[in-house]
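Table S2 (continued). Query chain:
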Amino acid sequence: MATEKSFFTEVYKVVRKIPKGKVSTYGAIAEACGTRLSARMVGWAMNAAHTVTPPVPAHRVVNRNGLLSGKHHFGSPTLMEDLLKSEGIKVKDDQIIDFEKHLWIPKSKPLLSPKK
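Corresponding output:
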């Protein structure tokens, strides 16, 4: 459990750095945390982010194609889209328009290697 919490903490640190009007992906955040193949765990962290202080802008995290794949974890079916639109990001059919223009890639840490 301590490992999960510390991973989530690292994820939240990265997500809090995503500028307004930008989005990042689960995979890019996992890589920035040094765990390239942990995109799904980043999704779990985003699902739990609503209970974290200071707030985590989870609405800025989308899948690798710019789809709002986590939208069902928000308070209403349109909340994620509404939050992105309030930051100037256009969304159509649950996909970000001009995804590459809005994509923010965090700097990566070296990949974690298993302890021997």
